[in-house]
Specification:
Length: 453
């Protein structure tokens, strides 16, 4: 994105040319990354683009779970088919103010409830590294679009790994900032206080420019954080030498494929050498949050469905329908108390770790991308699924609110592997500096090999 804006400013390329290339790539793509296009609005915006702005003329995709006024507001669910958004999300408005060109909506899992991008309304999104493999989720459409060369950057959201999981599966940078770093208003849903928004991006500098544009407090999100200036300007300037890192590929809770674990350890040790970090031997075992926690998070979904539920249950994916059924029948105050106890325990365990280290490095996903249609098979009655513990490595940072970033490392079976770096609250810039070192020392492909760029 940053280099594209530079090309616009130099006259090497124009916003209209770039938009036309994006639309042509989307039209010829079989990834099913985009589920709605607005070429008229995009062309009008591109023609008027002010390339002196930070994102002037850059085409971008919007995750289909993110409201954009006048566009479909389906939550990627048959239950909301035909609904239209009445407002635009605050962080998207900030991107528009910075000159970005909205192309359309990218597929996601229904209500963001699965860590792959598949639903009954729009179908399955494929991974551009290998058609037939999952792009991850819930921001899989955004990741597939960026890694597949359809657009340079796209919006994403992360409530349990939905930026980092698809980032790792598609060979992209996936940054989950400290909770509240980018405001989520208007009409902010506060509970369960695990969700953040951000970009699916190809480079660390692109993430930094996105943060320069979109971060900062807004009254419509009472838990958003004050603005920090100079994310891009200050990239690479923070002292890292001598800081301590724990390398724990499985975080003490996940079953990680041995070949992934080997790659993460090697990449983490190399990063420690490059950055001058001290590797320390600390026992890392982050607690799982259990069945009760999963059920408690369905309250916002039940509110959104309103009078539609339970009559709409046959329109829902199997997992969402089952979860709502169990939650409405079994969830109670005693279970809620267990949720709060588990969250407090998770806070304490994470704080104890960061009393001893500055960073924790793990795998992002337990394996590389698995079959894209595994949940479609399940919807049809086939109970085979992808790795059951996918998401276990990313959820802890959401529960406690810590910043975490996934960066691409050595491939496995021709597919990207992601390495996750978790940091202390409000030390987002240190993670970006570490990611920039990985990017500089061992550059990753900006797009999947067969992408139309």
């Amino acid at each position: 994105m940053v280099s594209l804006v530079d090309a616009f400013r130099s006259g090497e390329r124009s916003p209209v040319e770039e938009l036309e290339a994006s639309l042509a790539a989307i039209e010829s793509s079989d990834l099913n990354a985009f589920v709605h296009l607005d070429p008229e609005l995009a062309l009008e915006t591109a023609k008027q683009a002010d390339v002196s702005q930070p994102m002037g003329g850059v085409p971008f995709g919007v995750k289909a779970l993110t409201p954009f006024k006048g566009w479909p507001n389906t939550e990627c669910s048959l239950a909301f088919a035909g609904e239209t958004a009445e407002f635009t999300s605050l962080h998207v408005d900030r991107l528009l103010d910075a000159g970005a060109v909205p192309v359309g909506q990218c597929n996601a899992s229904e209500f963001g409830g699965l860590n792959i991008s598949v639903n009954k309304l729009y179908g399955v999104t494929h991974n551009p590294w290998e058609h037939g493999k999952t792009a991850g989720g819930s921001s899989g459409g955004s990741a597939s679009a960026v890694a597949g060369g359809l657009v340079t950057i796209a919006t994403a959201g992360d409530g349990g790994g939905s930026i980092r999981i698809p980032g790792a599966f598609n060979g992209l940078v996936g940054m989950k900032g400290t909770a509240g770093r980018i405001p989520r208003g208007p009409h902010t849903e506060v509970h369960p206080m695990t969700v953040v928004v951000g970009p699916m991006a190809r480079s660390v500098r692109d993430v930094c420019r996105w943060y320069d544009v979109s971060s900062g407090f807004d009254m419509r999100d009472p838990y958003s954080l004050p603005k920090i200036e100079g994310w891009e300007r200050d990239l690479g300037t923070f002292p890292l030498a001598g800081r301590k890192v724990a390398i724990a590929p499985n975080l003490g809770v996940a079953v990680v494929r041995p070949e992934v674990e080997e790659r993460v350890i090697a990449a983490a040790e190399q990063l420690a050498r490059d950055a001058g970090l001290e590797i320390v031997d600390v026992a890392v075992k982050l607690p799982g949050l259990g069945f009760e926690w999963a059920l408690s998070n369905l309250s916002q979904l039940l509110r959104a469905l309103g009078h539609r539920y339970p009559d709409c249950k046959d329109d829902l994916t199997r997992e969402i329908a089952f979860g709502l059924h169990i939650a409405t029948d079994q969830f109670n105050l005693a279970m809620m108390a267990k949720c709060e106890e588990a969250r407090t325990n998770a806070n304490e365990r994470m704080a104890e770790l960061f009393d001893e280290v500055d960073f924790i490095i793990s795998a992002t996903n337990p394996d590389v991308a698995f079959e894209a249609d595994c949940y479609l098979n399940q919807m049809a009655g086939d109970l085979r699924v992808g790795p059951e513990n996918n998401g276990v490595l990313t959820i802890p940072a959401n529960i406690v609110g810590n910043p975490a970033i996934s960066v691409p490392i050595e491939h496995l079976d021709g597919l990207p592997v992601g390495m996750q770096i978790i940091g202390r609250h409000h030390e987002d810039q240190l993670l970006l500096d570490l990611a920039a070192i990985v990017e500089r020392e061992r550059p990753w492909p900006l797009v999947a090999p067969a992408s139309p760029v």
